[in-house]
Amino acid sequence: MKAIEFALLTIGAILGAFIRYKITSFPVLFGIMGSNVIIVNIIGSFILGVFSVLSVSLNLDPKYSFLIAIGFCGSLTTMSSFALESVTMFENKQFLQMMINILSNIFLSLLSIYGGRILITQILE
After folding, report:
1. d(CA 125, CA 123)
2. Domain coordinates of the chain in residue numbers?
3. CA distances for 88 relative to 14, 44, 50, 55, 62, angstroms
4. Can you spell out the DSSP letters for 42-98?
5. How much is the pTM?
6. Which one of 50, 71, 93, 115 counts the least CB within 10 Å of its CB?
7. Number of neighbouring beta carbons within 10 Å of residue 80
8. 92 Cβ contact partners less than 8 Å away, ≥ 6 residues apart
9. Backbone angles phi, psi at 85, to 5 degrees
10. DSSP conformation class of 26
11. pLDDT digits (tens, 9 = 90+) for 79-104
C-alpha cells in the first residue's frame, strides 16, 4: 500500500467512524432498538452505490476507493453492531423485532445501493 492510499484510507475511516458515532449516539429513533444502526447502514450503502457508478463514469483513479468505499463507507456502516443488536433481541426473546431488524438492515441496505446507483445514473445521463 502506498502512502497516499494509506492516507486516503485513514481520512475516510476517521470521517466514517465519526459520523457513525454521532448518528448512533442519538437517542434511539422511534423507540426501536437498532434503528440508528439501520440508518447508518442505509446512508453508507447509498453513498457506496453512488460512488460505484461515479468512479466508473468519471474514470476515477482506483485510489479513491480507499477514501470512499473502503475507508468512509466501510467505517460508517456497521455489521458488528447490527449483529450484536440482533443477538441481544434474540436473547431477550424479541423474535419479531429481531426478524424485522435483520430483514430491514439487509433489504434497506440493498435497496439503498440500488437506489444510489439508479439516481446517479439518471443524473449523469
Report:
1. 6
2. 3-124
3. 27, 23, 33, 38, 39
4. HHHHHHHHHHHHHHHHTT--TTHHIIIIIIIIHHHS-HHHHHHHHHHHHHTT-HHHH
5. 0.89
6. 93
7. 8
8. none
9. -65, -40
10. S
11. 888 999 999 999 999 999 999 999 99
